Structure formats: C-alpha cells, structure tokens
Amino acid sequence: MSNTHLEPQLVKKRELARLLSMSPRFLDDLIAQRAIPFLEVSPRLHLFDVEVVKSALQARYGVAPKEARR
C-alpha cells in the first residue's frame, strides 16, 4: 500500500544542524529568538520539521539554506 500523504519528518537539533550545514549553537540562537518553528518535547529536547524550518529560514533571510552534502 502506498502512502500518498507524507508525514512531516521530525528531527533533533543535531540532525537538523547537519542537514542544513549549520552549527547546533547557531540553531540554539534561532530557537531563543523564536526565528524557527519547533516542538518542545521537554526543556532539553526540541524536534523540528525540516521542510517547515527551511521555509521559515527562506522567509526570514530571503535565501534558501545550504543543503549538506551526502
């Protein structure tokens, strides 16, 4: 059975930083500024929808974030 509805991919901060070629510390700054959307599971655990974060960064800074090389 194929699933035509894609579920959001939620990742932790370190994985998001790797995917966007950013440092985890820079993401901490964006979180503190509420510049990117996140789901706060606990005070120490934030989850991110990669595509939604990319869209927020595009809207805020006017450029697409750099994709990490695989």
State the main characteristics:
three-stranded antiparallel β-sheet, 17% strand
Proportion in β-strands: 15-25%
The total domain count is 1
Main beta-sheet strand count, sense and barrel state: 3 strands, antiparallel
Query: Unreliable segments (pLDDT under 50, ≥5 consecutive)?
Result: none
- Report the total helices: 3
Number of strands: 3
Quick one: overall form?
Answer: globular
| N to C succession of SSEs | EHHEEH
Q: Return the average pLDDT rounded to an integer.
A: 86
Topology (elements, then pairings):
Blueprint: E1 10-12, H1 13-20, H2 24-32, E2 39-42, E3 45-49, H3 50-61
Antiparallel strand pairs: 1-3, 2-3
Overview of the molecule:
By secondary structure, the protein is an alpha+beta fold. The chain has one domain. It has three helices and three strands. It has helices at 13-20, 24-32, 50-61; strands at 10-12, 39-42, 45-49. The protein has a three-stranded antiparallel β-sheet with strand order 1-3-2. The longest helix has 12 residues, at 50-61.
Summarize the structure.
Helix content is 41%, strand content 17%.
